[in-house]
Design goal:
Tetracycline Repressor, domain 2; 2 domains; homodimer; Arc Repressor Mutant, subunit A; mainly alpha
């Protein structure tokens, strides 16, 4: 994609996230998105033929945020289990500051399966599940977690937990309450995840 | 409610669940629901002014199923933690046999928050969260789980897990695969849930 087109697309995705954040997916208008992005309606419809395509792009940008952050942390030398354990806390921070993550997680949580969409869509829950599964496999290879840990079920629980953070933030939980839940999550899960040697 | 009206309502809810199961919420028609329930269109609209009201009734009937089963098991003498541990397995069975639970969980998982609905609606996730929290509190009082277990976070993880069972069943996971996931769930959670004496 040409650089200019990529910038336009990015502006539209952010404007859409802001509109969905303020008005909800149902009430936000395509007109308001093109206006607040400073992009013509023709250019908007060229990039995104429908609101569902915009919603999909916001979910995708949110998934990319998680994947990029995990990759950065790995490159900075953190181990897979360290990265895994940082993701819920990062999510809590992002929910307060980053409209792409906040709205992306909300749309991902509400994402309908089945034939109600007019575009194929990126399944944010599946992307997060894949990311967490990769980290868990890395942790298993380094023996940072116990042998035989059920990786898929563990990844599912963690993904569900990330979505529940967004849900609670939307119900006005404070950052401190979210951080407390995260500490509680690990107090619940770590005894079942730790290598056997660590438990003795 | 008169008994006859209650029976009509029940027939409509079941017919709606079957229509949503077969065609999806978007494509199912009110006409088809009234026809398959053998109820006039006028009577349908008297009970349920919109498809969203029907969806809400299916979610509600699903929540009632869980609450009634938990109550039956308690009355039959099972302890709160026993009931709690049976709910995922019961869900796996119901998903194969009971269109109300299958569609109720699906609609509950996809339930949107915020202003997109034309009726207030019952939040299935909240009802299940309340039910599991009550069971966890009962288990804590009997010291079946460890002191200081974070009950709310534990209930959230379990609710998320019940929804994930529906999601995997919809993606064609077999009953055996669901039961395997349930065994994995407990292998992950029980070490963090058990009273300290049990771990030694």
């Amino acid at each position: 994609m040409q650089e200019r087109a990529a910038r336009t697309r990015e502006r539209l995705v952010r404007a859409a996230a802001e509109a969905f954040d303020e008005h909800g997916l149902g009430a936000a208008s395509m007109q308001a998105v093109s206006k607040s992005a400073g992009v013509s309606k023709g250019a908007l419809y060229f990039h995104f033929p429908s609101k569902e395509h915009l919603a999909d792009a916001v979910r995708g940008a949110c998934g990319d945020r998680f994947a990029a952050k995990a990759s950065d942390l790995m490159e900075a030398g953190e181990s897979p289990v360290q990265v895994l354990m940082r993701l819920p806390g990062l999510t809590a921070e992002w929910l307060g500051q980053d409209v792409i993550v906040r709205v992306g997680l909300r749309l991902g949580r509400e994402q309908q399966r089945g034939g109600h969409q007019d575009c194929d869509g990126r399944y944010l829950s599946r992307e997060l599940h894949d990311l967490l599964s990769r980290l868990l496999r890395g942790a298993a290879e380094r023996r940072e977690i116990r042998d035989g840990l059920p990786l898929r079920t563990c990844a599912s629980l963690l993904v569900a937990f990330l979505f529940s953070l967004e849900c609670r933030a939307e119900e006005s939980a404070s950052r401190e309450e979210l951080l407390e839940s995260i500490a509680e999550l690990w107090s619940l899960l770590l005894p079942g995840m730790a290598p056997v040697a660590d438990r003795e």
